[in-house]
TrEMBL record:
Protein name per Swiss-Prot or TrEMBL: DUF6533 domain-containing protein
Species in which this protein is naturally found: Phanerochaete sordida
Lineage: Eukaryota, Fungi, Dikarya, Basidiomycota, Agaricomycotina
A Pfam family annotated for this UniProt entry: DUF6533
Keywords carried by this UniProt record: Membrane, Transmembrane, Transmembrane helix
Domain DUF6533: 25-69
Transmembrane stretches, start-end: 20-37, 58-80
InterPro entries: DUF6533
Length: 93
């Protein structure tokens, strides 16, 4: 059986691909914040000043704020400096 060597460097994204991904993430965050601003008056009206329903309130807040928080963390982490080093699995003989 012949040893087949795989060039794992072809699987690593290029700096341009990483930058494009960062821009898409930032655009998605901008749309999410825009939606959040447009619907915040409905949230105040129905959730914060309305009748308290524990289950629906918790579900709403989780669905509303978790994507916003995770998008902020993702964009912030994507903007951090990247290392030149790549993790390439060891080849077994």
């Amino acid at each position: 059986m012949a040893d087949s060597q795989v060039d794992y460097s072809t699987f690593a994204p290029s700096p341009q691909q990483l930058h494009i991904t960062y821009l898409y993430q930032a655009a998605a965050l901008a749309l999410l914040v825009y939606n959040w601003v447009l619907t915040s008056h409905d949230e105040i009206k129905h959730i914060w000043t309305g009748k308290r329903r524990m289950t629906s309130t918790l579900l709403f807040l989780g669905v509303r704020y978790f994507p916003l928080l995770s998008s902020i963390i993702t964009v912030a982490a994507s903007g951090l400096p990247q290392s030149n080093k790549r993790c390439i699995p060891r080849t077994c003989n």
